[in-house]
């Protein structure tokens, strides 16, 4: 199992500072959720992990290796799978072609779609020939997760996977993440605003506000008034 540790990172967009000494530990084979209101730095944290944005200070340690300034494609090849906010599938490519874009960083013998992708999301198998843009929002989210799984990630990073998704598919996504943790031993880091979803599937939670970590603890802490206070609008 693989760990992901974020140690005291700062991140700037030009002169504006977005993250202030953020530290998070995504434990091996666990689901770690980062919660907070809009604009508090959750997505910036994931963009730092995936290498889309460069940190100003601090370090990110993946599988006991400090990532330094490794670009996104190298991090993907190392085993960091990313499901971006808004899904960002290719609307004119078919479902099959979208999944196959996950082959880019794989060696020749690994270029296949894992069978469990279709076990978790059977709708994708029935729609392999349809264009990604013709799928519903929930189906596109399943496709985006499936595409990340094609890369054979050791750590799966998801940015608000329940955003704008119908409840039935939210449950499917929750079951899928629990399967990946329990059966595949995958380390999962997600940012979310949906408290009930996190309470149901997460092992550990972090609460962010104004670019800082305000609370860290087990998911059961979401029931504490002092923790919920940080999530109030």
Q: What descriptive keywords fit this protein?
A:
single chain; alpha/beta; Rossmann fold; 32% helix; transport; ATP hydrolysis activity; ABC_transptr_urea_ATP-bd_UrtE; P-loop_NTPase
Explain how this protein is built.
With about 230 residues, this protein is an alpha/beta fold. The chain has one domain: Rossmann fold (3-Layer(aba) Sandwich). Helices cover about 30% and strands about 25% of the residues. The strands form two sheets. A six-stranded mixed sheet has the order 6-7-8-3-9-10, with helices on both faces. Strands 2-1-4-5 form a four-stranded antiparallel sheet, covered by helices on one side. Helix 7 links the parallel strand 7 and strand 8. The longest helix has 16 residues. The radius of gyration is 17 Å and the shape is globular. The protein starts with a strand and ends in a 5-residue tail after the last helix. The model has no long low-confidence stretch (mean pLDDT about 95).
């Amino acid at each position: 199992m693989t760990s992901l540790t974020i140690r005291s990172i700062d991140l700037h967009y030009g002169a504006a500072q977005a993250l202030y000494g953020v530290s998070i530990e995504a434990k091996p084979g666990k689901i770690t959720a980062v919660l907070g209101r809009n604009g508090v730095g959750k997505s910036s944290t994931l963009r730092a992990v995936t290498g889309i944005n460069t940190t100003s200070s601090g370090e990110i340690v993946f599988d006991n290796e400090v990532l330094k300034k490794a670009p996104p494609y190298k991090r993907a090849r190392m085993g960091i799978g990313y499901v971006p906010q808004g899904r960002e599938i290719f609307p004119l490519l078919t479902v099959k072609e979208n999944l196959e874009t996950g082959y880019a960083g794989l060696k020749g013998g690994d270029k296949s779609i894992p069978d469990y992708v279709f076990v978790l999301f059977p709708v994708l198998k029935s729609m392999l020939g349809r264009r990604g843009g013709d799928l519903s929002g929930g189906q596109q989210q399943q496709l985006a997760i499936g595409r990340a799984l094609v890369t054979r990630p050791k750590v799966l990073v998801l940015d608000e996977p329940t955003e704008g998704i119908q409840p039935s598919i939210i449950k499917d996504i929750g079951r899928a993440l629990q399967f990946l943790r329990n059966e595949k031993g995958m380390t999962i880091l997600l940012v979310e605003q949906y408290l009930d979803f996190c309470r149901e599937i997460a092992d550990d939670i972090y609460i962010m506000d104004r670019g800082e970590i305000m609370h860290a603890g087990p998911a059961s802490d979401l029931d504490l008034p002092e923790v919920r206070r940080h999530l109030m609008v």
